[in-house]
Amino acid sequence: MDKKQHISIFTTASLPWMTGTAVNPLFRAAYLAKDEERKVTLVIPWLSLKDQEHVYPDKITFNLPSEQEKYVRHWLEERTGFLSAFDIRFYPGKFSRNKRSILAVGDITEIIPDEEADIAVLEEPEHLTWFHHGKRWKTKFHMVIGVVHTNYLEYVRREKNGRLQALFLKYINSWVVNIYCHKVIRLSGATQDLPRSIICNVHGVNPKFLEIGMKKKEQQQNGNQAFTKGAYYIGKMVWNKGYKELLKLLRDHQKELTGLEVDLYGNGEDSAQVQEAAKKLELTVRVHHGRDHADPLFHDYKVFLNPSTTDVVCTTTAEALAMGKIVVCANHPSNDFFKQFPNCRIYDDGGGFVEATCKALTEEPAPLTDAQRHELSWEAATERFLSAAELDQVPAKRLTKTPSNHFMSTSLDFRRNIEDASALVHYVGTGFVRLQPDEEQFKELGLAFPSGKGGSSH
């Protein structure tokens, strides 16, 4: 009998969409499977051709799931340098334009056969369970671990009637996560506090960035000038991704920052407005199309400016530190993990931003030590994940303990009954709002087309 843990990682996006929930779960699957001590399956959304055309960049589309799997594996292996011994399976998804995200269609727990249902990792557990209409995750799997990627409340607060929406969403998130997850890992304190949650950054950086950092370290040790360019920022070009904060800081402190030149790189809905705002400044702020952060164009920049406060743990900040750069970022829970690195310069206000930026431009970055490089790696992130999820101790078992006395038994039964009732209410409610399945999608995935009534929640 195979006693290996079987970890099924469900996520809300897939390459070629270059978003955090496509990239980070992919690396997690690869590094969890690397030592072959456990079986790993990555479960990602399969979109209709119409949705693919809308979501995926550079007109990339796939006619079959096998084509997309080949693309995903090739992208990953180019960056890790090793063959990844994990399975990839697909669930039917639909892109919601008003939510700007992919939603699952049908009961996606069915993608994993019952005999393989051991440990489930829900990347963005709120997102994956808002509209879940099917078998209860905790019933299907021995252990369900949520990994919270996104600060949804911060995004919602910035919309019309944001405070009211955020209050409602906060309750809904806590409710569904409590029903469906045994344990929750929050990447930073910038996320909503959720039932049975702990804070731990379980993400690493693409190994390519650490390689770039090693080359820069060698240049510094040989007495060569490793960084010949000044300051830059890279990110999706929408106002709430740090551009609003950065341009305000530059506008408010133009006199103190006289002579500063900044390059902005990104694509997005607000590109034209960002360009207009940059032109109004007396400082030299150049706006460019987005590029891969590992592009040689970025290697020689010395200072990465990142005032964003909507991130949970900013991937580009980690990448910049891995490349040996100085990072100037806000004193915010999303940046707590980075404070351990000497090249991370934290500011509290506009004056602090000016001081940190000017100082960074006159100094040389401190070369990363081996321990600091390891801390940024996916190897270290995987160790942190296994520890935080308590998967490094004993094989996962069902989290049902026999109470030691009658009072505890009554208390436990009461809590379980409340949870069961909540699950039933959620199941009935999602029956009215669930997405209608696309027969063609199910056919492409080789799945049985669901009947009108749906499955059971227990």
Automatic annotation (TrEMBL):
It holds the Pfam family Glycos_transf_1. It is found in: Plastid, Chloroplast outer membrane. Residues 216-334 form the Glycosyl transferase family domain. InterPro entries: DGDG1/2, Glyco_trans_1. Signal peptide: none annotated. The keyword Methyltransferase does not apply. It is an enzyme of class 2 (transferase). One of its GO terms (molecular function) is digalactosyldiacylglycerol synthase activity. It comes from the Eukaryota. Its EC number is 2.4.1.241. This is Digalactosyldiacylglycerol synthase 2, chloroplastic. It comes from Davidia involucrata (Dove tree). The lineage of its organism: Eukaryota, Viridiplantae, Streptophyta, Embryophyta, Tracheophyta.
